[in-house]
Amino acid sequence: MTDSLFQTQPQTEVPASNGNGASPEAKRSLRELADGEAFELVFCVRERELRQKRDGEDFLKIVLADSTGSVPAICWEQAKELFDISVPGSAVRVSGRFSVHARYGRQIKISSIETAPEGSYDPADLAEGPPIPAERLEGDLRELIGTIQDTSLQQLLERFFGDGTEAWERFRAAPAAKFYHQAYVGGLLEHTLSVAQAVSAASAYFPGIDRDVAVTGALLHDIGKLEAYNDEPMAIDLTDKGRLLGEIPLGYYKVRREIEEIDGFDPDTAQAVLHIILSHHGSLEHGSPVVPCTREATLVHTMDNLGGKLGSFDRLERELADGEAWSRFDRGLSASAYFGSRAA
């Protein structure tokens, strides 16, 4: 098995070879690369970072991605020059060698990077997206909103999800996260809908839950991400607001402002919805200023946590090569993921 690429000593460069890997003209995905394969392909740059070796010289660490997933990559030579080329969100043509490490998982050792000219690649090949068409997700969302009986909650949801509103236009394209789950255009819509649908279904089986409040809270629990994340589909990152304030406070203030604009909004209902938003991460160490203290908030937190973890399974499975059943260790799961059906 190969050593990790992220040791602090340079290794011998292995240039891409048409005889040992895909030709530059071959259209292949990241998922199709095999352990030890040399290649030359176009990827999107997700992240970049200059680091130092033990001798003080710089090396470049970046994250490359296409529509099938992402992979860490490293370049030992010409780090500063290649750092300038590797702008997050840009398309680059990369020559290098792909490997799968027993502990660190998939990784790339870069031989060269150059800017990929427009027209030399299809942008759709570089950006991930939901497996379900956006039109179907939107239709299911509107169907669920239509089941809310409380008129004040109906008005509140219309302010965020009404067709043509500024919030809706941003919501339908926003990511759900930077990395761990649904980190792509439309990811927030996909994640929010799945959580709200799960909350709606579960509320029928547990007594004492106000379904309207729970579903509304589920639909709005991540609304702060509209401001917490940027709108760069190939370089998702936190905005200044996201870093300085956090997505939960941003969501709380957005919803509270809209509630205050609705005449006759019941204070107890407002408090119940806002508590869901403030507590949906479940604990103080995970970023919630309060922990769930109501049935509705507990239900939303549970389904949100479940949705995030299952979203991580989806991400890890997309990254696996054919025939692989175990993923690399994943911090989001605190374990490696096993896909028995793939092994069979």
Q: Helix coverage percent of residues?
A: 25-40%
CATH class of the largest domain: Mainly Alpha
Instruction: Spell out the helices and strands N to C.
Output: EEEHEEHHHHHHHHHHEEH
In whole angstroms, the N-to-C terminal distance is 24 Å
Radius of gyration: 22 Å
Structure description:
With 344 residues, the chain is of the alpha+beta class. The chain folds into two domains: 30-125, OB fold (Dihydrolipoamide Acetyltransferase, E2P) (Beta Barrel), CATH 2.40.50.140; 134-317, Hypothetical protein af1432, CATH 1.10.3210. It has twelve helices and seven strands. The strands form two sheets. The protein has a five-stranded mixed barrel. Helix 6 (211-220) packs across helix 11 (295-319) and helix 10 packs parallel to helix 11 (295-319). The longest helix has 25 residues, at 295-319.
List the defining traits of the structure above.
344 residues; alpha+beta; OB fold (Dihydrolipoamide Acetyltransferase, E2P); Hypothetical protein af1432; 2 domains; five-stranded mixed beta barrel; two-stranded antiparallel ribbon; 7 strands
Task: Summarize the structure in short.
The chain is an alpha+beta fold.
Topology:
Blueprint: E1 38-52, E2 58-66, E3 69-75, H1 79-85, E4 91-101, E5 105-115, H2 134-145, H3 151-161, H4 166-171, H5 187-203, H6 211-220, H7 225-228, H8 240-244, H9 247-260, H10 267-279, H11 295-319, E6 326-330, E7 335-338, H12 340-343
